[in-house]
Write a structure and sequence with these properties.
Length: 507
């Protein structure tokens, strides 16, 4: 496989070209994109895996951050998702379980015996990053004493449009990617899939054409599998807003706030805030949704952009000589910042298959299988944010409260454990959640406890609460000590704004 053509630019296209040229410098890598393609540039929120990808490619972090209006991200905050007036965090990194008797369940004993403890306290006890988040601070150096490592415990907020442009001009083209700007007007097919695009031939074509999926969908007619069974949101309004108090508003986390018919994202970049309202067209029309969004923002005079989302994934992601990456492959919805996550994770899987001297049908099918299993598990993780909610004040939230989420949970169909199944199994069979991933944070914020009094009584055959309370006093105290230590060690750390203006966005 000597020549690969990437069709479509944007973040997905240029991330694909960058990954390929980095690891296959001897191959002919070409990117074709239509001139002046419209892109919604409202800010991009990422997950921790993006740091691995940046390091994997050897990208200079400071350079790309300065040119993409970037900031650092340590957590995702969910406001009003369980019910109005409550919020919780899903911080990055691994929880600190040092001196914990029962791992994550130590906190639940604290909640039993001190019921006034707020649910926000869970993340504060286990994640050193929360000391930075709560004080709006950041340092790109590890803090070993509390277990904070920015390489694994941080991600980025950046301008998605500028990110694609930076990759094009500063990484891809200097390393040898050929860039062609022209409208796609002629696609020829053969028995192997696509023969040429505008008379440009290649061994492999990678579809990065966004929701229209020009190659995989429109040309090869690969069926699309909707996720409307578990994800009802399909639309969004997006805009940009100015800072009014940058010191306070430039925070190291994405804020997601549930409102009437969906939720609003808030992504603080260096110079502005990207925000949008994700909603379901089944429950509210576009004009009404826009008015709800304006009411939430308390601003009218803004430039709003409408986004229509196709939620789901194609039946195959590698059909003949076409691979889909990004929105052309599938999309979940923006909650949990999965957009670019699926891009770099799919790309790593693609690289591993292209490392072989010849691509077989097994390789194509294996790529599809591994990507779709990861994608579906992530989709169900996102869906749990709605399934566990107890909001019911509008038809939208009433529907989510009462819908049948997972037929496989009650049909006993033999399936691999993932998403819904894993959540149910861990809670009701193991009485604990895994430390990997964010399920334990989301479940806690939604009051869905893995350990509770009925389970304790049953498992221990002991209902002596006073005995338990005395027995756990010291362990609960240790959790409090952890929070004090976290806060002490970050006392001299600069604010996020100070760090960025002194190290990244230096005038």
């Amino acid at each position: 496989m000597k020549k690969i053509i990437v069709v479509g630019g944007g973040s997905a296209g240029w991330m694909t070209a960058a990954t390929l040229i980095k690891h296959f410098p001897d191959k002919n890598i070409t990117l074709i994109e239509a001139p002046n393609s419209p892109i919604v540039g409202v800010g991009e929120s990422t997950l921790g895996g993006i740091k691995h990808w940046v390091e994997f490619l050897g990208i200079d972090e400071k350079d790309f951050m300065k040119e993409t209006d970037a900031s650092f991200k340590l957590s995702i905050k969910f406001t009003d998702f369980y019910k109005k007036g409550e919020a919780f965090h899903y911080p990055f990194g691994k929880p600190n379980l040092e001196n914990c008797r029962s791992g994550l369940n130590d906190w639940w004993f604290k909640k039993f015996f001190k019921p006034e403890t707020p649910y926000t306290d869970y993340a504060d006890c286990y994640f050193p990053t929360m000391a930075l988040v709560n004080k709006n601070k950041f340092d790109n150096k590890p803090i070993p004493r509390i277990g904070f490592n920015p390489k694994t415990d941080a991600a980025y907020h950046f301008d998605a449009v500028k990110f694609g442009v930076w990759l094009k001009n500063n990484f891809c083209i200097p390393k040898g990617v050929k860039h062609i700007e022209e409208e796609i007007v002629d696609i020829k097919q053969n028995d192997n899939g696509i023969e040429s695009i505008n008379n440009h031939k290649a061994d492999l074509f990678i579809d990065c054409t966004g929701f229209k999926s020009l190659l995989l969908d429109k040309t090869l007619k690969v069926p699309f599998e909707s996720y409307s069974d578990i994800l009802v949101n399909d639309s969004a309004w997006a805009t940009r807003i100015k800072y009014t108090d940058k010191e306070k508003q430039l925070v190291p986390y994405t804020n997601c706030t549930a409102i009437e018919n969906g939720w609003v994202w808030n992504i603080p970049l260096w110079s502005r805030i990207g925000t949008g309202y994700v909603y379901s067209s089944k429950f509210v029309d576009d004009d009404t949704a826009l008015q709800q969004f304006k009411k939430h923002l308390k601003q009218e005079d803004l430039d709003f952009k409408k986004i229509k989302m196709r939620i789901g994934i194609h039946q195959k992601l590698w059909e003949k000589n076409v691979v889909a990456i990004g929105l052309s492959a599938g999309f979940i919805e923006p909650l949990e910042s999965n957009g670019l996550f699926s891009v770099h994770e799919f790309l790593i899987k693609l690289l591993r298959n292209l490392q072989r001297d010849k691509v077989s049908q097994w390789d194509r099918d294996n790529f599809t299988f591994s990507c779709k299993k990861m994608f579906r598990a992530f989709a169900e993780f996102v869906a749990l944010h709605y399934a566990l909610s107890h909001r019911d004040e509008t038809p939208y939230w009433q529907y989510l409260n009462n819908k049948n989420w997972a037929e496989e949970l009650i049909s006993l169909r033999p399936q691999l454990i993932h998403g819904f199944q894993l959540a149910a199994f861990d809670r009701d069979k193991n009485y604990r959640f895994e430390t990997e991933g964010g399920l334990h944070c989301i479940a806690t914020g939604m009051h869905w406890s893995p350990t509770d009094l009925p389970s304790l009584f049953y498992v221990n055959c002991n209902a002596n609460i006073e005995h338990w309370k005395k027995d756990w006093d010291n362990d609960i105290f240790k959790l409090e000590i952890k929070k004090i230590l976290y806060n002490d060690f970050v006392e001299d750390v600069p604010t996020l704004k100070e760090y960025l203006e002194n190290n990244i966005h230096v005038n």
